[in-house]
Each structure stands twice: as structure tokens, then as C-alpha cells.
Amino acid sequence: MSKHTPGPWHAEWNGDAWQIHATQTQIAEVYYGCDADKERDAPDARLIAAAPDLLAFVRYIRMTLPHYSAQVKEAITVIQKATGKS
After folding, report:
1. What is the rounded CA–CA span in Å between residue 27 and residue 48?
2. For the chain, which residues make up each domain, given as ranges?
3. How many CB atoms lie within 10 A of CB 16?
4. pTM for this prediction
5. Which of 10, 30, 47, 81 is buried most, with the most CB atoms less than 10 Å from its CB?
6. Is the dihedral of CA 64, 70, 71, 76 positive or negative?
7. Sheet holding 9-13: strands in order across?
8. For the segment 29-71, what is each residue's pLDDT rounded down to a tens digit?
9. Is 33 exposed, middle or buried (0-12, 13-18, 19+ CB in 10 A)?
């Protein structure tokens, strides 16, 4: 599996769909079918754009809070889901 494109990512409305970018690279486009709706699709676009930051934070929690076993196990599960590693 290749590594994900490093953040930061940002979401930008291009008039037809939300585009997710990292620097000058387009990562994804968010719209439902051919009926793009700026307001309806904005939450998904923002969540995708925040993915690298969210993954970094969960990794930070795993490293700094080892004594919270249940939370650390959940953090590891989330990291595995995000990275495709088991």
C-alpha cells in the first residue's frame, strides 16, 4: 500500500463540486452523482480535508496516553482503519 498524500489538505468549492487538495495536488472530489450541492456536500468535504490531521492526533494519543488502555486500543483500531493495516 502506498502512503497517503501528506497534509495539510483543504476543501475548495469549484462551482460544481468540492475538491480536496494538498498543496497543488487534487486528492478527491466530493459530490453525490451529477447533482452537486455545496451546502449538503460541505461536511463530507471538510471531514476528508481534516483526515491527515485527525490521523496525526490519534497517533499522538496512542503515544502519549499508554496508561488509558481502552482508549489506546480504540486509537489503534482507528489508525488501522485509516492506514489499511491490521
Report:
1. 9
2. 9-83
3. 11
4. 0.66
5. 30
6. positive
7. 9-13, 18-22, 25-30
8. 776 655 667 787 788 888 888 888 888 888 888 788 777 778 8
9. exposed
